Inverse folding.
């Protein structure tokens, strides 16, 4: 009987410890931008975004049920593309 009570108490303690961090919220600063990406071009199958802070362009391919692929667009020399 003591073993069963001990095991039940340990399970309860582990549940409390594991679930205690589930309701944490992250604090946002008031000066944080709400949107950092702008859609430059969008068609069926892909979208091109421009990062508002850095100016770097990103290519996003919609893979349907397979998810999305995102990659940085680069110049011929390998540096990130920042538009013309």
């Amino acid at each position: 009987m003591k073993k069963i009570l001990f095991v039940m108490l340990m399970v309860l303690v582990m549940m409390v410890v594991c679930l205690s961090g589930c309701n944490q919220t992250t604090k946002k600063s008031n000066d944080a931008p709400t949107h950092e990406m702008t859609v430059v071009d969008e068609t069926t199958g892909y979208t091109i975004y421009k990062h508002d802070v850095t100016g770097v362009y990103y290519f996003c391919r919609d893979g349907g049920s397979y998810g999305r692929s995102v990659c940085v667009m680069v110049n011929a020399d390998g540096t990130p593309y920042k538009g013309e």
User: Anything to note?
Assistant: The radius of gyration is 24 Å.
